[in-house]
User: Which sequence fits this backbone?
């Protein structure tokens, strides 16, 4: 009874064609649930589906995994996740340029590291001074500025500074697919946050215009600042040029708790500095999606693959694979990397 | 020609009556611009007018002092500004109760200050141990708890704890006129923040339900916390019971810059711990309104007048008068102080 009908070769081909047709129709139907306007710079990959499925799930009011809008928090690393971090962190380039600008007033820097190294473009000598050197640079660059003056300096610098490879303003070397993801999440009621090792004060002057992320949703490393009333009775905050908090590694989940106080639903990072934040979010009792950006596109951006920007082996990629966090391949998941240059 | 018409006595009275009528009509017209539903628990005083005028001014799109919604930030102290801080800070009462709860596991506390003082209700002895004692209490009460456990403890405690004078839950000893002001500001596009010396972790579990202020808009003092992955691979944050940042005095403007990064338009405080925050906001280049709550109502709440809760002379009241910041009198500006008791 198992073979009560026998097909001819022609019928078999017909059936195979029908099966294929049904299969393709289903594929099309599945794809059709995502309008072309959603994440247009993302290829129609499993990663894109996972993002959209997750957002649909937590915003589906009748669904089991529905999350109220006020609890929809998404956190993003900045350097290497929202904008390029190669060949050097943009903030480091800013500091170097600032030291060069101030150098004429400091003849003693010609013979003193790490300043000598900066003035002679000898980055090996600068790196050799380690964290102590970095702190001296920070202090020399910013101590004594009011928070307003610092903001103006950053804004002015970004207006003219250009990336050496792409010859574009740094604020144009942000990732177009990530800009779309930020907008898509906000359109679905999410509050989008930056949680970055970069300086809070350095990111805020441009994050709103560039990412649509307002100052109060930018969390980063902070300096000590001092409250002062000047001789005209005007209250102001003076940067001390001394680090208060480094928002990297284990400090990222600490900062999420300290600043936000809710468990995010979505976290996106790209390096070991983000790993604790990703582990934290993936341990939440709320539905969550944790994503890991893989820099594997030397042609359009950079391929540092399994090495973080400091040349250390990246553990995050292993953990992502182990935990099943979607690893976003810049090369295969993204149609474009950077946005179109802005008209002048 | 100056006296071409001479009035009889009757005519003069008629004119006086007309003038009075017009005057009253104008008064009524002015009052009519504020519907009765706006700040209903506030008396129709100059203070109320200043608040409403300010909000109308910064939300008037055609006006010279219009401020875009995303830039409308208002900051409020908590203890003594949004809820009662007498006879002791609520958080201190929590800590005392917590020590009493834990005491059976710590027989050594019977002979050791500040614990001995707490167990014997000898607050003078506790106070004598000063900040060092307070830090010991904090450590004994909270060290080792996960942030989630701490949140549960606070929530559970607030459910049963009652204020000794009013016999009500502490979350009902919030000021009704201030609840209305918070709602009124939010209805006009403001983001309302708490900037308090109290613990961030202590306020967040109830601030959203009580004030409509979400966790990410609660800024306070913070503890050190440690990121940890437990033996089940679950990431969590452990409170160290050690103070990280005290959000009081000069630290309040520092916190506003660190957490919010925009200059608030409105600030409301009630003590010298708030003064730098008020000075900072009043120095902003954006339109601003700075208010000072004066506790002068012993019958309905407390009258500590020119003395802050620690018995020091209050400089803020002088500065408010000097700078023309509206001083809100609890006694004469507020129709009611506390909200109606909630139905069980």
Assistant:
């Amino acid at each position: 009874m198992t073979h009560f009908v026998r097909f001819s070769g022609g019928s078999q081909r017909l059936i195979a064609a029908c099966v294929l047709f049904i299969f393709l129709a289903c594929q099309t139907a599945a794809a059709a649930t995502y309008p072309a306007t959603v994440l247009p710079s993302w290829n129609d990959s499993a990663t894109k589906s996972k993002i959209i499925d997750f957002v649909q799930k937590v915003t589906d009011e009748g669904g089991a995994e529905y999350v109220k809008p006020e609890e929809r928090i998404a956190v993003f690393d900045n350097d290497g996740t929202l904008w390029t971090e190669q060949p050097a962190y943009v903030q480091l380039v800013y500091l170097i340029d600032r030291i060069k600008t101030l150098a004429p007033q400091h003849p003693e820097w010609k013979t003193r590291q790490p300043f000598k190294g900066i003035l002679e473009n000898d980055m090996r000598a600068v790196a050799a001074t380690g964290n102590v050197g970095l702190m001296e640079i920070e202090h020399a660059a910013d101590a004594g500025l009011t928070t307003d003056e610092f903001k103006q300096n950053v804004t002015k610098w970004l207006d003219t500074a250009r990336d050496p490879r792409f010859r574009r303003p740094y604020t144009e070397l942000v990732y177009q697919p990530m800009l779309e993801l930020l907008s898509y999440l906000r359109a679905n009621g999410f509050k989008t946050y930056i949680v970055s090792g970069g300086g809070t004060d350095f990111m805020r002057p441009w994050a709103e215009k560039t990412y649509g992320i307002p100052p109060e949703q930018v969390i980063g490393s902070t300096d000590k600042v001092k409250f002062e009333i000047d001789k005209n009775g005007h209250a102001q905050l003076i940067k001390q040029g001394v680090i208060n908090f480094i928002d990297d590694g284990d400090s990222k989940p600490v900062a999420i708790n300290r600043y936000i106080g809710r468990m995010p639903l979505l976290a996106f990072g790209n390096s070991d500095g983000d790993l604790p934040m990703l582990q934290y979010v993936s341990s939440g009792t709320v539905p969550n999606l944790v994503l890991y950006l893989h820099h594997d596109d030397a042609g359009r951006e950079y391929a540092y693959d399994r090495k973080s920007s400091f040349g250390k082996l990246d553990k995050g990629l292993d953990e992502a694979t182990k935990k099943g966090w979607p690893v976003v391949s810049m090369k295969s998941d993204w149609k474009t990397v950077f946005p179109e240059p802005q008209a002048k």
